[in-house]
Structures are given as structure tokens and as C-alpha cells.
Write a structure and sequence with these properties.
Layout: E1 25-26, E2 29-30, E3 36-45, E4 51-60, E5 67-71, H1 80-90, E6 100-104, H2 109-113, H3 137-148, E7 155-160, E8 166-174, H4 179-188, E9 192-195, H5 203-209, E10 214-220, H6 227-243, E11 258-260, E12 263-267, E13 272-276, E14 283-284, E15 289-294, E16 300-305, E17 310-316, E18 320-321, E19 326-332, H7 335-344, H8 352-361, H9 374-378
Helix pairs in contact: 1-6, 6-8
The structure holds zinc ion.
């Protein structure tokens, strides 16, 4: 790891000179070292002209150091991020030894109120960064967050969940060609890191472009706070804070970690009912049957085969599809990556936290072993 240096081998790269990081002003309030504050950042107004503000929680260690932001529920229906940040606040107290942590549990307050991913002006808030002071409603909100929080930080983690009627196996998405972003992604400690820049206008892409390495965690489903997703999110944040020297202790590594550059969707060739054979997190081999499609009276119509060797990143939660409907999202693996994953996934099973999340994410869904080839290809 070329960019590691100093302080017992921890990541110590910071954006700002040392004396600048003693002062931190957000929403017009100065937060001294060693203090914790709840702030309100005004970003909008109601039809009645009342201000609408974003709740921000700031924790500062007695010593200056890196600044890390955590953001949740940027998409107003994705609640796992809010759950992760709340657990960080109400779980075991964080004893920061240096640096500052800036928490925004819910960015899209309007979306949360309306059970919607979007903002009231129908824009996707994760396509409007870095925003404009005199832009649209969403663009102004993005601008407020970007100037008041993101640009003052050294690292950022934004929490997301799968789109409606889908579920994601926890994976980090990061632009790994940026060395500091790659370190951040690796430090978080998920098994899978999907390398891409993120969509134009996304918070993390804009942050990386502004010199603030940022990643997202994609995990779980909308409208839920899932216990194993919260566990993975909290562990990831603690791993990062330990890696950058803000918390004591050693980061916990996943059993294996792969950087994936290609992902692919397996789509239904026709309308029908699905019998699922693979779960999120499963290692699947090329031409393995992922799901069987049948008519409403059970006549088998088609098998959905894996087009590549891969790990299931996400899947539909709805067992009925139309032609072209997305069923499985696969992270394509190289031969070497397959060998590495196989080495740790004896009989396709995982142990510990990653095993629990694999089992619990889809525990209320029906899965059936595929009769042929499944076992021999998984051995
Ligand atoms: Zn999202």
C-alpha cells in the first residue's frame, strides 16, 4: 500500500494542513475540538415559508486529525444508512482519539416523509451533486451539503440499498483507480469492491473529483433497517476509523476481498414465475442454473443460466417477471478471483457475519436447490 505512511503504518493522508483542521465551522457554528454538537443546516423552505433543515451530528476528538463524513438515506426510501448511523450514535460510545466525524443520518428528508427515493421536484438527489447555490430545489440541497460538509472532509462513506423490489448483498462501490479511494474501500472490509466512478452527479463521484475520497456501501433492501446490514455497516465504519487512526484498535479484515470491474444483469427471456436457486452472496459458475421459470400452472419454460463465473451482488425479490425483467445482478470474477473465493467458501457457505448476512437477507424468500449440475459446479 504505497500511500500508507507514518503513525504506526496507519493511513494518515489528510487534505488540509494541520492548523486548518483545528477549526471546524458547519451551518455557521464553530465546533471546538473535543466537543459533540447537534446542528441544523437549513436547505429549503415549506410552502408556508418555514425553514427545512438537515440534522447533522458532529463529534470531534480532543486532537485534530482526519475528517470523515457518513451520509444515509440520500435516497429517501433507503433506510439502512439511517439505521447504521443511528447504531453508531446509540450503540457502544465511540471514543475518538483524533479527528472529526460528521454524521447525516437522513439527507433526503422530503423523500423519507413521502416514502420515495426522489425529491419533491422529482429529481434523483444522487444525480445532482455538487449542486448549485441558485439551482433547482435538489441542486440547492446538494450544494449546501457539498460546501458545508463534503468539501471540509478527508473521507466519506455514503450508505445505499437496492432499488425497490431488489436486494443487494453488501458490497462497496468505489473508484479504485484513485489510490486513496481504493484504500478507503479496502479498509471498510467488505468481500466485494465494485470498481466504478459512480453515476455523473452522484455524491461519491463528485466528492472524489473534489479531492475527497468517498465510497458507498450498497446493502439490503428499501424501507427496512436490516440487522445484519447494520452490523456490516457499523463494522465497516469502525474499520475505516481505525485505519485512519481516529479510533484505537485494529481493523477487522474480511475472509477474502475481491475488486470487481465487471458486473452483469441476468434478465428474464419471457414472462413467468421464478423458482430461485441462488442467493445474494453465492458464488456461481458459468452456465449454472440461477432460476427456473415456469408458467402459472407450473410447466417449466426456461432456465436462467449464469453467463459468467461470479458472485451474486443482488437479485429481484419478486418471483414473477416480464420479458427483460432483471433477475440476478452478478459480479463477474476472473479465474483467479474464483479460485480465491472458492478457497474461502467451502461448499459455498460462509461463516461469521458474512454467513449470517447471506442467510438473513433473503430468509423470507423461497429458494429451491436446482436438481442437476448445481453441486458439482460449486464444489
Ligand atoms: Zn441509493
Amino acid at each position: 500500500m504505497s500511500a500508507r505512511n507514518g503513525l504506526n503504518g496507519r493511513m494518515t493522508l489528510e487534505n488540509r494542513p494541520f492548523d486548518e483542521r483545528k477549526t471546524l465551522v458547519i451551518a455557521g457554528q464553530s465546533i471546538p475540538l473535543g466537543e459533540t454538537r447537534e446542528l441544523q443546516l437549513p436547505f429549503d423552505e415549506t410552502y408556508l415559508g418555514e425553514p427545512v433543515s438537515l440534522p447533522i451530528y458532529v463529534m470531534r476528538a480532543p486532537q485534530p486529525g482526519p475528517r470523515v463524513f457518513l451520509t444515509g438515506t440520500l435516497h429517501g426510501d433507503e433506510l439502512n444508512g439511517m439505521g447504521i448511523i443511528r447504531e453508531l450514535l446509540y450503540g457502544d460510545p465511540l471514543q475518538l482519539i483524533r479527528g472529526s466525524l460528521i454524521l447525516i443520518p437522513v439527507i433526503n428528508i422530503h423523500g423519507l416523509e413521502r416514502h420515495s427515493r426522489y425529491m419533491p421536484d422529482r429529481r434523483d438527489p444522487n444525480r445532482c451533486f455538487p449542486g448549485l447555490a441558485r439551482g433547482s430545489q435538489t441542486s440547492r440541497m446538494a450544494h449546501a451539503i457539498f460546501t458545508e460538509v463534503v468539501k471540509q472532509c478527508d473521507y466519506g462513506i455514503d450508505f445505499h440499498s437496492a432499488a425497490v423490489r431488489r436486494v443487494n448483498y453488501p458490497n462497496v462501490r468505489a473508484y479504485t483507480r484513485n489510490p486513496r479511494t481504493r484504500m478507503l474501500a479496502e479498509a471498510f472490509g467488505c468481500e466485494l469492491i465494485v470498481n466504478n466512478q459512480g453515476p455523473q452527479g452522484s455524491l461519491r463521484r463528485s466528492a472524489v473529483q473534489a479531492g475527497v475520497p468517498s465510497i458507498i456501501l450498497e446493502a439490503g433492501e428499501v424501507w427496512k433497517i436490516e440487522p445484519t446490514v447494520v452490523e456490516i455497516g457499523v463494522r465497516g465504519v469502525l474499520n475505516v476509523l481505525r485505519t485512519v487512526g481516529m479510533l484505537q484498535g485494529e481493523p477487522r479484515k474480511p475472509p477474502f476481498q475481491l475488486i470487481v470491474t465487471k458486473t452483469t444483469w441476468v434478465r428474464a427471456p419471457m414472462g413467468g414465475i421464478l423458482d430461485f436457486h441462488a442467493r445474494p452472496g453465492d458464488l456461481v459458475r458459468r452456465n449454472e442454473c440461477l432460476a427456473t421459470m415456469s408458467s402459472i400452472f407450473g410447466q417449466e419454460q426456461s432456465s436462467l443460466l449464469a453467463p459468467v463465473d461470479g458472485i451474486v451482488l443482488g437479485m429481484t425479490t419478486m418471483p414473477a417477471v416480464k420479458p427483460g425483467g432483471p433477475v440476478y445482478h452478478l459480479a463477474a470474477l476472473s479465474r483467479r478471483n474464483v479460485q480465491q473465493a472458492q478457497h474461502y467458501l467451502k461448499n459455498g457457505e460462509r461463516h461469521g457475519m458474512f454467513g449470517r448476512v447471506r442467510r438473513e437477507l433473503t430468509s423470507a424468500m423461497a429458494f429451491r436447490e436446482h436438481e442437476s449440475e448445481t453441486h458439482e459446479t460449486k464444489s
